[in-house]
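User: I'm putting together a teaching handout on how sequence relates to shape, and I'd like one worked example. Could you take DisA checkpoint controller nucleotide-binding from Candidatus Electrothrix aarhusensis, show the sequence you're using, and then write out its predicted structure as tokens right after it?

Assistant: Happy to. First the sequence, then the structure tokens directly below it.
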Amino acid sequence: MKYPKDLPEILKKTINEIKSDHSPPPDLPQDIILNDLLETSYHASFLTEEKRRLGFRLVFANKKDLIKKNDPHFKNPHRTIIFPEPRPFNISEILRLSPAFEMTQVLICVSQTNRSKKDPQLGIWGLLDTGTSWWKLLSHESNHGMPPPNYLTISSTEPGNLSLSAEGIIFFSLRNGEVIEPSWGILQNGPLGDFFKKGSISFYKKVVSELSGKRYDPDGHDEDYPKRFYFHFIERLLFHIRQKGHGGTVFFVPDYLTPKDSRLLDRVNIKYPLDYDEIWKLMVSSIVSHRKYYDLHFPMRKGEQLTKENFIKHSMISSNQDEIDEALSDCVQFVSNLSGVDGAVIITDKFRVIGFGSEVIANSPSLEFVISTEKKKTPIDSFGTRHRSSFRFCSSLEDSVGFIVSSDGGVKATMRVGPDVILWPDINIGGLGL
């Protein structure tokens, strides 16, 4: 088990490696200050305000330095809100401040208020409004965003869990007493990537056929964009389920299965069968529209093909793109809401929703352990009902993937690989975050 007191040394060892490919690492405060920041944040994370779960972000930065970083002429500057006098930095103050704003947008600004090295005092000198663009980028609601400033940031969204980052690059997280490093491309690579490969290729081919070509980007600048967009939907769906805070289970199965297929019904009792097939069509329309928009946009930007007809067409495509993306966002919200019903949501690798409120009835007598990605065996009896049901389903249907979203925000993946059921213990921590 790891605790806040263990994190400073881990941070010092990892910070330079993680930041080396991006920008210079932020200056870290002395250990006594870092320990105060971590301990206070950790204990504050367990508190609730009128039964609401507390979420907050702290940034350790000098007031003058942070204000200097914000260029008022920049398109989307961060905005500082300065208190007349610093507030004390303690658990009670975090509890009082946090409900007043969205942690996805506003950071609590902390710095040292005296000059003492032996007995440094910390205070909250203000707030930093970073806007919503970075959060929208993380949740795939937008394709661009302005990151938080390059200062040490401590975030908490669940009791006892902390994430340490700077400029939107996560160093590591403390979750359930374990230090978890950022992960990249888990869905695209390995066994999970093998399962979703067929769906992503089908999506790419459908987009190309709609464009009446042989490749998405003949120039080769962004040929993989349709496949990335495919995986973005999976991440986006899991992200929205996680944000609801009630937990949920999602099973992905091959698209040849239907709600009445005995291969499925022998394993689950689908209380609410569906055949919801809107997502795939909207995703294809979105990518096709995206490509047509830029086919016009780039030449016009260079001063070429500036005709009235092209201008009207460009405007119409842009307006249509907004409508498609809004409809797709609505679909993501709709499907994520289905996870609030007791039981699993079942969706195919072409994002056709087969049903929800699904109870796993499959039995797997030989299943006694699950194996983590570190080859560690864990008895299934040590997990809760939601996890055990997912293990049994994936054990009995090899061509499937289960995602288990816990109420505390953790996201796990499971699937059968050969004779074993594999568990990815935490896939929701990507390299970018808060």
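A couple of points you could highlight for students: The chain has two domains: 4-180, 190-424. The mean pLDDT is 90.
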